[in-house]
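Morning F.,

Quick status update on the modeling queue. The single chain you submitted on Monday has been processed. Sequence for confirmation:
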Amino acid sequence: MENDWTKAHDSLSRITVFSNPNNEPVTISGHSDDLKCVGVGTDAAVFHYRYASSYAFKIYAEDKTDKIQTERNIYNLLGDSACFPVCFAADAHYLVLSYEYGVTLQDCLLQGIHIPEQVVWDVEVAREHVREKGLNPRDMHLKNILLQNGRAKIIDVSEYMQPGNDLRWEHLKSAYEAYYHLIDGRVVPFWLLETVRKWYNQRKKDFSSFDEFMKSVLKLFTFRK
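Structure tokens below.
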């Protein structure tokens, strides 16, 4: 592994990230030929630098930089765990993390890649580890979990100091156990995943239960497939 991640600083300084309302993904401004964006979230975007390939750089939105030190502290508390990346350093605008190869669970659905049950077990182990460290395993969803050599790697820990259970993982696990066999190996259209995401974030309160929500999703998939 390269030991000088600071060589990426000049290229990273050319990038500015802006947050958007309604929990929509961030907007990226600027460009560097040496950087590749490998992930976009609602608070930050993640980049890979060609001359320091073992690292990933998570650049936070201008109005979200107060979260950088919080996330660094979470990684320190989690310690050495195969379930999570390693955090090497924190800058004023970004975190320096280990680069984790693999495919997100969302991309697995988009590409028809099989998601093994081992992934579910790995996430359960990771969640227990988080609790043992006095943290709260929130915000675990399709874009935050990588399939890596048949195992799970969780790549966003930023909400683990927040209280409350957002039920995202519980619902995802229930959907996997009850319905994944219906789409296993099939390509799920992007528009369908986006519709489900928006329904889940904005309309789930309109359903009496998660099962009712999933039945509506299945009707949509059957009608438009």
